[in-house]
Specification:
Length: 259
């Protein structure tokens, strides 16, 4: 009787063992084996594609599923929020000053510079001036000619010459001199606005700068001062002394008169 009871109890155990052996001996289909063999190791875990039968991805790999700040990787979320807020309140001076006190002053150094550069790129130059004033009040600020240069050039391109000259005076108070590119943009801006006297003031500042002047600002002046022969002759004389191997083009007399 005991032997019969023991043999009956072993039936389910042997059945499970036989079933497991049959599953192991079941041949793999050629299509699934070929698909597994053709894919590199761990390819299913890194690349999107059809899921093989029996393999299911049960985890998230941590990568974003959409264009998260795509194209603005160099600007942080806090900086982007400040840019949008400044543009939103730019027509309301009271709200703008409150937003600057509560959000712009709390930015870190790199975020503050990123906001300044992005506003210059978007030609929001008056907002860029306000951000630059905040930047100058920071403890880590040191006079930087490139910050002034980019802002002055952006103001000149947008024909805001009064603000450009205010920045120019602040830059000179900090004993900084711009490069030839900045001189060219400011001279071009004054000539475009019909202010040759102001253009000549920038020209005199360029002549007195410690770095030797380059050819391009002279070319801009020689072209823009055609209606003003006296001023043009002075610039032409300096140009021939500094660049004796270069030639200054004089237009026909019947167009602009004798230069």
């Amino acid at each position: 009787m005991a032997t019969r009871a023991f043999s009956r109890s072993k039936i389910p155990i042997w059945a499970s063992i036989v079933t497991r052996r049959n599953l192991i001996k079941t041949p793999t289909t050629s299509s699934s084996f070929t698909a597994l063999k053709s894919r590199p190791p761990f390819a299913g875990f890194d690349e999107p594609g059809p899921v093989l039968s029996g393999f299911i991805r049960l985890y998230h790999d941590g990568r974003p599923r959409g264009p998260l700040w795509r194209g603005k990787k160099l600007i942080g979320k806090e900086a982007l929020f400040v840019i949008l807020g400044l543009k939103r309140f730019k027509d309301d001076e009271e709200k703008l000053q409150k937003f600057i006190k509560t959000h712009v002053f709390r930015l870190l150094k790199m975020d503050l510079i990123a906001v300044l550069v992005e506003l210059e790129r978007q030609e929001e130059t008056l907002l860029a001036v306000k951000v630059f004033e905040v930047l100058r009040k920071q403890d880590w600020y040191e006079p930087d000619v490139f910050l002034y240069k980019d802002l002055i050039m952006a103001l000149a391109r947008c024909r805001k010459m009064d603000e450009a000259m205010r920045m120019w005076e602040n830059m000179r108070k900090e004993n900084l001199f711009p490069d030839s590119q900045a001189y060219t943009e400011v001279i071009r801006g004054f000539l475009r606005d019909g202010s040759p006297a102001d253009a000549m003031n920038i020209y005199e500042d360029m002549i007195k700068a410690p770095d030797p002047p380059e050819e391009l600002p002279f070319r801009i002046l020689l072209k823009g001062l055609l209606p003003h022969p006296l001023l043009r002759n002075k610039v032409k004389k300096d140009f021939e002394e500094l660049f004796p191997e270069k030639h200054a083009y004089d237009p026909p007399e019947e167009i602009f008169g004798k230069c």
